[in-house]
Amino acid sequence: MKRLALTTLSVLTLGLTLASGANAIKPLSFAELTNTNTAESVLLAQATSAFTTVDQAKATTGTAQIVTENGQNYIVFDEAFDTARGPDVTVVLYTGTEAPANLPENSYEVIGNLQSFEGGQRYLIPAELDINDYGSVAIWCREFNVTFGYATL
Description:
The chain is mainly beta and 153 residues long. It has helices at residues 2-14, 30-33, and strands at residues 41-43, 49-50, 52-53, 63-69, 72-77, 89-94, 108-113, 121-125, 136-141, 146-152. Strands 1, 2, 4, 5 and 8 form a five-stranded antiparallel sheet that branches. The protein has a five-stranded antiparallel sheet with strand order 3-10-9-6-7.
């Protein structure tokens, strides 16, 4: 769990602009996040999957895909990603292909806190997880056990 928290924090930190000037770190564009033109990067999903909204007034839009880069798996959301706002919103891998409004215990694995309610982003999938055990990625509010949307893997 510590490793997951540190990884999430590292990914969040990399995406922020720290300062102006020569030492500034710019946020990565979606093209940079999903660059699969190198021998080290492999797109696992042949097609991206569009998000489906689950019982929310605000639609969850955009697409998700799984990418392997340098032997590590990532969930990648495109620039069109947008979802409802809420507290304690997380990205989870769900065992089924269609995530219900309320996730049953032991049916999901938390990947990390949602980095942003909109725009391109990516999440490291811990190496110990077998992505074949999961059918979808979901945007989920932990505090109220409410799924905002999901994309089938």
